């Protein structure tokens, strides 16, 4: 064993030496155009992203056609919108994947300013919209989006950029931890100002994951994340309504008629799905319109009802595969920024998925987060796809 | 600034430096004077940690979903099914009750009932006030509805039952959420009140509560069907869901032995007669002599408002009374049938007999009209309705034998009609008869019988000595339209054929020459017997002269040689001051009237050679 580990160490050192040599004498202008074909992880991720996006479209159609029809709209209405956003998302993905990241890094500061400013749009009369107690939506005509989705990506890139530049100063909280926490804290505060706790949590999760991966001292990360959690708890307890919603998940059956109605209906839908599900389009609880927000926050329940446990395992398994491939890429890449970006995106997707599914299944309080790739909601899908574009960009430039 | 000592991770200090360790440097020295040292972690290890944590979280979520979809699914599935499924009952149509001629006596007609599904009512207060305005609901009813609408565990609440279709349509036109209608049958009597006391009634749910409606409720009810429907939150049927329907099986129809037209005429005649006599009530039964089928049963009573009307109660079956002199038919029958005496045998008959003279049980029994002690033939005894003569003859038959005859005539037990609350009358066992009871039984006191028992008993004589149980149900018609005739009534022989012929000839004399002359029908010979009973007073005795109340009865049958019908007429408490308080004067004329109707309706013709009482 000792010989093999020594061997591994040797290899690693040799690789580092080669990398340093490359750095001193670059033979090529850009790392964004690798000579060698992309690694397997690239294709794995591409397949998962493609399948998820398409399955997401199908599920959105299934979840919305009946309710739209009953409203007198075209059954395709929501699907059409989601399809449009998926198309835009593909463009975003393509750009994120093909444009070298160093170019993107130059845009981080202005992007940070713009997206932070955009966070104030929902408060503007006329275009701002309050949904479920959170002022997080901007509506321009028939076009609506959540600025917080964009901010998540920008904050992630800003943190990764800063931590990559200061890779040798990770031990110094003043140089790395503090500025990153300030960026993240700003983002989270903006989200909380909108009343959107879910996005604030995801924002914090992105920041802490990036800090953690970057190697920030564990004790400081732990301490600051504890402080963040305390802040979140304070936020929850500051409003009786949020408090009630938060605690309702502890006894779902008792609150099934009001506070945990959604979760209870989601649980019914999942239970009805059983092993094989009712088949796409045939979910009784969805057809009965018993499940509110079936197409957005609670689409996982529709997946579970219509595709059954097989579908659930496939979807969550897909996320796991994506996470695995993302971590692989983050570990394999020699670019510090790429590594942090990939790790942060993986952390983001994982945290958002877990919080969403945890809320739908009654494991956690419902926070109003979308399920990446699946929930109807254009900006979420667009930003998710763009983030995946970066993931793919990292993956194809590993070597 | 929150800081933690790196000693917590002693491993970081003693472990060999990670690849990037050589880049790490000591932290800045804060002005406080003590040194804080931090070490950067290895990003590769951190990535692996992130991955492991992610996998654990995913595993937890997958475990939770797997639990919900397998072992934990039972109650949730049930809850899901419950909230989208509504079961509605398809009411089976209640069978129709027909008269023997096919006329409908009681039938169910469709009407509309408004109901609510509280699960779908989203504005209870608003809907209740709208419904109240349209349906004129009482305040109490509104409160009850408001409460019912608030109870979301139920999916069916009546709002208004069996209302006018037009009103129902205008309520439905409002399209209130959760308000819907069902067709529900309403029980009506298309022939008016004809046969009301026989038919009984149903409650609002169409369940029989009295009379034949109660007796044959199971037959009439049928089998309710059920419709299960899956609907969404707003009540729309879920597309493609299966609605399962179990069709209702309509109840059987009943065909009664009653002749609607005769029933109507009898009722009207009885009402008129009871009014004229200022009587308290009366009953008429018309029975087919051979088959026991009841053609008509009329019961009328003077109400508290002093109006005489058909009663809802079938007194003919449920009310027992002391028959009085009509009972002489049975004691004289036993005398003839046992050969104790022949019609022309004579016995010495005093006007009165005193029993238990000198004791505190001293009782005097006397005939209705004073006469010297004389020799009377059996025929004279029945024609003139002599109490003393009858008891003298019955004594010869013996208490036990007379009792056996009485039982055979059907007294002391119900007729087998099975009519709800039918009375069996009261008859003591022979050995329990005490003192004068042994004597009075022979002329109709000391036991009681219903009109139906009495008519069936007299009918035994008419039917050649064979008792035939009365019958009200002629046939049933199944849901498939198949007519099933009811089995013939049970019969048993009571008298020898010859005895019955002898009795008939004597009872013809009653009508032609005796107490029953009021019952004569021109051209058809009638056999019958009158009875004028003192009614038992509330004090337990029969009252003194001038303070008595009466029950006037006539039972007869015709044509005497081959009887077709036996008719009982009994008038309860005719005006005691009137001359028309006796069986022969109060009841017999009504017998004639009813007999005339029966002759028309049943097309009864005299037997060849029959000329009635005018025989030369």
UniProtKB/TrEMBL annotation, chain A:
The keyword ATP-binding does not apply. InterPro entries: Cell_cycle_FtsW-rel_CS, FtsW, FtsW/RodA. Its EC number is 2.4.99.28. One of its GO terms (cellular component) is cell division site. GO terms for biological process: cell division; cell wall organization; peptidoglycan biosynthetic process; regulation of cell shape. It is an enzyme of class 2 (transferase). Pathway: Cell wall biogenesis; peptidoglycan biosynthesis. Pfam families: FTSW_RODA_SPOVE. It is found in: Cell membrane. Keywords: Cell cycle, Cell division, Cell membrane, Cell shape, Cell wall biogenesis/degradation, Glycosyltransferase, Membrane, Peptidoglycan synthesis, Transferase, Transmembrane, Transmembrane helix. It is a multi-pass membrane protein. Its main location: membrane. GO terms for molecular function: lipid-linked peptidoglycan transporter activity; peptidoglycan glycosyltransferase activity. The keyword Transmembrane helix applies. It catalyses: [GlcNAc-(1->4)-Mur2Ac(oyl-L-Ala-gamma-D-Glu-L-Lys-D-Ala-D-Ala)](n)-di-trans,octa-cis-undecaprenyl diphosphate + beta-D-GlcNAc-(1->4)-Mur2Ac(oyl-L-Ala-gamma-D-Glu-L-Lys-D-Ala-D-Ala)-di-trans,octa-cis-undecaprenyl diphosphate = [GlcNAc-(1->4)-Mur2Ac(oyl-L-Ala-gamma-D-Glu-L-Lys-D-Ala-D-Ala)](n+1)-di-trans,octa-cis-undecaprenyl diphosphate + di-trans,octa-cis-undecaprenyl diphosphate + H(+). The chain crosses the membrane at residues 42-63, 83-100, 176-195, 207-236, 310-327, 339-361, 373-395. This is peptidoglycan glycosyltransferase. It comes from freshwater metagenome.
From TrEMBL, chain B:
The chain crosses the membrane at residues 47-67. Keywords: Membrane, Transmembrane, Transmembrane helix. The keyword Cytoplasm does not apply. Residues 1-34 are annotated as: Disordered. One of its GO terms (cellular component) is plasma membrane. Residues 91-239 form the Penicillin-binding protein dimerisation domain. The keyword Transport does not apply. Pfam families: PBP_dimer, Transpeptidase. One of its GO terms (molecular function) is penicillin binding. Gene3D superfamilies: 3.30.450.330, DD-peptidase/beta-lactamase superfamily, Penicillin-binding protein 2a (Domain 2). Residues 282-594 form the Penicillin-binding protein transpeptidase domain. It is found in: Membrane. InterPro entries: Beta-lactam/transpept, Beta-lactam/transpept-like, PBP_dimer, PBP_dimer_sf, PCN-bd_Tpept. GO terms for biological process: cell wall organization. PANTHER family: PEPTIDOGLYCAN D,D-TRANSPEPTIDASE (PTHR30627), PEPTIDOGLYCAN D,D-TRANSPEPTIDASE FTSI (PTHR30627:SF1). This is Unannotated protein. It comes from freshwater metagenome.
């Amino acid at each position: 064993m000792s010989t093999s580990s020594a061997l591994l160490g040797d290899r690693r050192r040799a690789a580092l030496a080669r990398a340093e040599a490359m750095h001193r004498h670059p033979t090529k202008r850009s790392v964004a155009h690798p000579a060698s074909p992309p690694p397997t992880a690239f294709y794995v991720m591409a397949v998962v992203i493609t399948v998820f996006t398409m399955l997401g479209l199908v599920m959105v159609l299934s979840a919305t056609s009946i309710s739209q029809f009953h409203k007198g709209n075209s059954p395709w209405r929501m699907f059409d919108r989601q399809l449009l956003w998926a198309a835009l998302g593909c463009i975003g993905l393509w750009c994120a994947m093909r444009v070298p990241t160093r170019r993107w890094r130059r845009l981080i500061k202005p992007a940070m300013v713009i997206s932070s400013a955009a966070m104030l749009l929902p408060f503007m009369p006329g275009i701002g919209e309050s949904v479920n107690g959170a002022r997080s939506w901007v509506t321009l005509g028939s076009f609506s989006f959540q600025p917080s989705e964009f901010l998540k990506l920008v904050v992630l890139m800003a943190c990764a950029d800063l931590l990559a530049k200061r890779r040798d100063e990770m031990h110094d909280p003043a140089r790395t931890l503090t500025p990153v926490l300030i960026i993240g804290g700003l983002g989270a505060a903006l989200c909380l100002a909108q009343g959107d706790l879910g996005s604030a949590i995801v924002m914090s999760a992105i920041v802490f994951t990036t800090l953690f991966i970057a190697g920030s001292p564990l004790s400081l990360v732990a301490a600051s994340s504890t402080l963040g959690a305390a802040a979140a708890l304070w936020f929850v307890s500051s409003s009786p309504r949020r408090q009630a919603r938060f605690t309702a998940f502890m006894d779902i059956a008792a609150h099934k008629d009001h506070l945990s109605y959604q979760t209870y209906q989601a649980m019914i839908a999942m239970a009805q799905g059983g092993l094989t599900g009712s088949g796409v389009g045939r979910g009784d609880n969805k057809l009965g319109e018993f499940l509110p927000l079936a197409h957005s926050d609670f689409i996982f329940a529709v997946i579970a009802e219509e595709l059954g446990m097989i579908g659930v395992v496939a979807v969550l398994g897909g996320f796991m595969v994506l996470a695995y491939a993302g971590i692989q890429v983050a570990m394999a890449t020699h670019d510090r920024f790429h590594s942090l970006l990939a790790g942060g995106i993986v952390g983001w997707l994982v945290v958002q998925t877990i919080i969403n599914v945890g809320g739908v299944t009654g494991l956690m309080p419902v926070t109003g987060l979308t399920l990446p790739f699946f929930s109807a909601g254009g900006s979420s899908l667009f930003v998710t796809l763009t983030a995946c574009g970066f993931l793919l960009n990292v993956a194809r430039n590993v070597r | 600034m929150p800081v933690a000592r790196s000693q917590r991770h002693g491993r970081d200090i003693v472990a060999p430096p990670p690849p990037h360790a050589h880049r790490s440097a000591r932290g800045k020295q804060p002005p406080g004077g003590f040194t804080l040292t931090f070490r950067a972690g290895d990003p590769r290890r951190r990535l692996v940690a992130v991955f492991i944590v992610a996998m654990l979280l995913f595993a937890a979520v997958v475990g939770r979903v797997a639990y919900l979809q397998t072992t934990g699914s039972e109650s949730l599935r049930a809850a899901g099914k419950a909230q989208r499924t509504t079961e509605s009952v398809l009411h089976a149509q209640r069978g129709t009750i027909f008269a023997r001629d096919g006329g409908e006596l009681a039938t169910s007609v469709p009407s509309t009932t408004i109901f609510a599904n509280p699960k779908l009512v989203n504005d209870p207060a608003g809907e209740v006030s709208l419904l109240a305005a349209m349906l004129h609901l009482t305040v109490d009813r509104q409160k009850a509805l408001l409460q019912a609408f608030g109870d979301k565990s139920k999916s069916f609440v009546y709002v208004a039952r069996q209302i006018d279709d037009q009103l129902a349509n205008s309520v439905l036109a409002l399209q209130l959420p959760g308000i819907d209608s069902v067709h529900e049958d309403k029980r009506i009597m298309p022939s008016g009140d004809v046969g009301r006391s026989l038919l009984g009634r149903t409650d609002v749910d169409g369940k029989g509560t009295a009379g034949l409606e109660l007796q044959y409720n199971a037959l009439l009810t049928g089998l309710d069907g059920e419709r299960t429907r899956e609907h969404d939150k707003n009540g729309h049927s879920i597309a493609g869901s299966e609605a399962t329907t179990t069709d209702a099986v309509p109840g059987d129809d009943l065909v009664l032995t009653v002749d609607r037209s005769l029933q109507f005429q009898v009722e009207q005649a009885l009402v008129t007669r009871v009014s004229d006599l200022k009587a308290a009530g009366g009953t008429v039964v018309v029975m087919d002599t051979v088959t026991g089928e009841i053609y008509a049963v009329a019961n009328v009573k003077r109400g508290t408002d002093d109006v005489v009307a058909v009663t809802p109660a079938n007194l003919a079956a449920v009310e027992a009374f002391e028959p009085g002199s009509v009972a002489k038919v049975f004691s004289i029958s036993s005398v003839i049938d046992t050969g104790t005496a022949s019609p022309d045998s004579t016995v010495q008959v005093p006007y009165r007999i005193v029993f238990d003279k000198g004791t505190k049980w001293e009782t005097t029994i006397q005939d209705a009209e004073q006469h010297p002690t004389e020799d009377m033939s059996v025929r004279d005894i029945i024609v003139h309705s002599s109490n003393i003569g009858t008891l003298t003859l019955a004594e010869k038959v013996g208490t036990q034998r007379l009792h056996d005859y009485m039982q055979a005539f059907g007294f002391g037990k119900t007729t087998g009609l099975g009519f709800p609350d039918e009375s069996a009358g009261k008859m003591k066992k022979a050995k329990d008869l005490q003192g004068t009871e042994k004597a009075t039984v022979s002329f109709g006191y000391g036991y009681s019988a219903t009109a139906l028992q009495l008519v069936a008993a007299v009918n035994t004589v008419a039917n050649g000595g064979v008792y035939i149980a009365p019958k009200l149900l002629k046939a049933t018609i199944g849901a498939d339209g198949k007519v099933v005739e009811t089995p013939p009534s049970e019969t048993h022989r009571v008298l020898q054929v010859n005895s019955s012929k002898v009795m008939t000839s004597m009872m013809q004399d009653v009508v032609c020459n005796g107490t029953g002359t009021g019952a004569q029908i021109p051209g058809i010979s009638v056999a019958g017997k009158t009875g004028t009973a003192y009614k038992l007073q509330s004090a337990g005795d029969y009252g003194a002269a001038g303070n008595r109340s009466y029950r006037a009865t006539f039972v007869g049958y015709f044509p005497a040689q081959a009887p077709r019908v036996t008719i009982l007429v009994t008038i309860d408490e005719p005006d005691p001051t009137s001359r028309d308080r006796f069986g022969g004067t109060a009841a017999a004329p009504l017998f004639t009237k009813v007999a005339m109707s029966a002759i028309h309706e049943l097309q009864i013709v005299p037997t060849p050679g029959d000329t009635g009482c005018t025989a030369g």
